[in-house]
Design goal:
Elongation Factor Tu (Ef-tu), domain 3, 2 helices, 7 strands, about 20% helix
Length: about 100
């Protein structure tokens, strides 16, 4: 029986949240419906502390980052430059196209 190929592209909508650490950060939580497939893909790409390298597109803005595991989900960090370019902030709902990237060396 052939091994099943992990899904690597994900499309979802999320409402931006803030998580306060040493500095305020804005994240898009990955919806529950995407988590099982994302966890499968993460097994092939994760590095230190369960972070998962991704390339994401919000509107027309493409950027690379890493998902952070948080509780039972993953959080997609939205860089300041991306938020400024799109004029988005905490509480806004965005559409995301995201692909898991191979392990960083």
């Amino acid at each position: 029986m052939a091994a099943r190929k992990a899904q690597t592209e994900f499309r979802f909508r999320a409402t931006l949240i803030e998580w306060r650490g040493p500095a305020p950060f804005v994240f898009a939580p990955v919806p529950d419906a995407q988590l099982e497939a994302l966890r499968d893909a993460a097994k092939l790409a994760t590095y230190g502390w369960g972070c998962v390298p991704v390339e994401a597109t919000v509107s027309s803005v493409k950027f690379t980052t890493s998902l952070f595991p948080k509780g039972d989900t993953y959080l997609l960090p939205l860089k300041v430059a991306v938020r400024r370019k799109l004029n988005i902030t905490v509480g806004d709902t965005i559409s995301v196209v995201m692909s898991v990237q191979s392990k960083r060396l």
